[in-house]
Amino acid sequence: MMKRRMISLFLVFTLTSIFALLGCSSNTTKESTSGDEKQVTLTVWGDQENQSKVEPAFTKINKLFMEKHPKIKLDYQYSGTHQTIDTAVRSDSLPDLFYVQGNKTPMMKLYVESGALLPLDEYNLDLSRYSEEAIAYATVDDKLYSSLPAFMDSQLIYYNKDIFKKYGISEPKTFEEFISIFDTLKENGVTPMSMPGKDEWGRPWLAFSLASALANDALTSLNNGEGDFSDPNIVKAFQTMHDLAKNDFFSKNFITVDTSGSQLAFTNGDVAMMADGTWSHPTYSSTMSNLGTFYIPGVEGEKLAPLSLSNYTTYAVSANTKHPEEAVEYLKFLSSKEAQQIVAEEVVGAIPTLDDITPSKDVVELTEYDSFGHNILTVLSDVSTDKVALNDIFMREIIPGLLTNELSGEEAAKQLNDALAKTK
């Protein structure tokens, strides 16, 4: 009796299991033939820090992309920060795509070395519209790893036209004329320049401009693995920062002033000039009807714009994505003229570097430069290693040292050379 009961239970269990498996098999088949099953979803991490700035553009870009690629759905999240991306790289939990800053920092190179990024050369992205600098931005060890940059940030001088007019000052045509402006203003009791000495990411913009204007050839050599920071023109750029601070050409007690306070002093008319990034142009132009701008001219008068390519449209693909072909399609779209024109129209202050992208009216005056110059921070990042970060030394030690007169130009150059030697 017991044996017969056990056989019955076994048959019931077996039949139930078979029906369950058949049911599962039937559901799987149904899903595989449905339209939803064929749609791939890509998770994308956008730039959280600049969300308010880029969201209008990416809302349009992502919608247009999905209309053109109905089998690809984008789960676009503003989750990309330096910390979240670094953590995801270490924990092998990257999304399908995420924004990167190219060669502006050492991070993309480190991601490549860790095996986190998908090489893109075999996917035939169109590079024909782009400059060597743009391709270098997206390249590590001669391999392409991100979509291409089409916009730039730079540093220049904002000035109060009314103050300049009152004292007969014109936009400088040479570097000597630029320096003479400080003397003229101080002699007339006007504070020449506002300087946010307290902020690590507010105080270096003048140094970036000076290095490009005076030492661009030397920076080119460093970028090519030649020369060092003892070049006289680099020393002169550093010494100029030191001298301007020492001669009280900056706002009183500037070393304790943050960026907001420094900008307010300028927009209120308390100082005549401020060195800042092109990204701050909307802040000034919306509050000042007498705003003027110029790039610092070099000794020969050429106006070089320190080139810092923007990461608005530069994204990389995780090496572990399950959908590399679809992910690369998104990169190709971000590198297209169509998507880039949306950025130009929707992102306030976006300055195109490509001739076929029409800039918005608010940035036309920011394109009045003769050519691009090196951004010293990019050069420092390129020559840095994971153990010796010259870019961090420059930002956290060299700039404060020059502004507080603890370092002369030669001493600053020597400190960077000592660090450079450790990268060899």
UniProtKB/TrEMBL annotation:
It comes from the Bacteria. The keyword Signal applies. Keywords: Signal. InterPro entries: Bact_solute-bd_prot1 (IPR050490), SBP (IPR006059). The keyword Iron-sulfur does not apply. Residues 1-20 form the signal peptide. Gene3D superfamilies: Periplasmic binding protein-like II. This is Sugar ABC transporter substrate-binding protein. It comes from Metabacillus bambusae.
